[in-house]
Amino acid sequence: MPRQPRQFEIDGIYHVIKRGVEQRNIFLKPQDYHRFILGLEFCNTHTATNLWPLVGSDPTQLGGRLAEERAKKRTPLVELLAFTLMPNHIHLILQETLQGGISKFMQKLGGYSTYFNKQYKRVGTLFQSHFKDVRIHDDIQLHNVFVYVHTNPVELWESGWKKFSVCNTDNAIQKLEQYWASSYSDYIGKENFPFVTTKDFFLKFFGDEQKCRQAVEDWIRLKGGQANFDAKMFE
């Protein structure tokens, strides 16, 4: 029996996770992360998207090409509220604003597989067949999913972070601010990918950029056993 299309509630907010098949790495070089982030920005539209002219642009001309693309009128499929790219998976916080928007957006993002296979001369599936989604129901979940998505890179330096065991909190905070493949920098006032995410929602929710930073840093500084949420809620 064919799989039924997923139903997402209009204005509903969802934590979406997409993993590499067999948990393989889906980003091998910095340019791979950049290519996927281009997709986050320019695939968020109903119209067909061809990123190859941007990917293959002379770096000296890329700024002009991006400006041309951004000047085009587009109707977004979703509100992209936050993202983090990890070596073998991605985290997105999406709001369904048009019926079928999240499903269509995720389908279009799957085009990254074509780029990856061509880049690394491989064939076959890159992503697991289905993405996972978790509906966010209340303010507590909303707070926690923002923190969880943006602190995910801590795992790269502190393997015990999901068990609330961060050995060097200052180092983790510093490295997290330097981790550019996410929307965290933009939320704390360090312009990184300003055209990718819609920040107004979470800035209003937390109050301002400093409170976004504080929410993330407070979590990192918590000692084992003192955390007030379970990471498994969002996996």
Report on the architecture of this protein:
The chain has 235 residues and is of the alpha+beta class. The protein folds into 2 domains: 1-136, 2-Layer Sandwich (Alpha-Beta Plaits); 138-234, no CATH class. 40% of the residues lie in helices and 12% in strands. It contains 10 helices and 4 strands. It has helices at 30-42, 52-55, 59-71, 101-109, 112-119, 139-151, 169-178, 184-187, 200-206, 209-221; strands at 13-19, 78-86, 89-96, 132-136. The protein starts with 12 loop residues before the first strand and ends in a 14-residue tail after the last helix. InterPro entries: Transposase_17 (IPR002686), Transposase_17_sf (IPR036515). It comes from Candidatus Wildermuthbacteria bacterium RIFCSPHIGHO2_01_FULL_49_22b.
In CATH's first tier, which class of the largest domain applies?
Alpha Beta
Tell me the CATH architecture of the largest domain.
Answer: 2-Layer Sandwich
Radius of gyration: 18 Å
Q: What is the assigned CATH homologous superfamily of the largest domain?
A: Transposase IS200-like
Structural class by sheet pairing and helices:
alpha+beta
Helicity, as a percent range: 40-55%
Poorly predicted runs are: 223-227
**Number of E strands:** 4
State the shape: globular
What is the percentage of strand-forming residues?
5-15%
Number of domains: 2
Give the SSE order as H and E letters.
EHHHEEHHEHHHHH
How large is the count of helical segments? 10
- Distance N terminus to C terminus? 27 Å
CATH topology name of the largest domain, in short, is Alpha-Beta Plaits
Biggest sheet descriptor: 4 strands, antiparallel
Mean pLDDT: 86
How are the strands ordered across the major sheet?
Answer: 2-3-1-4
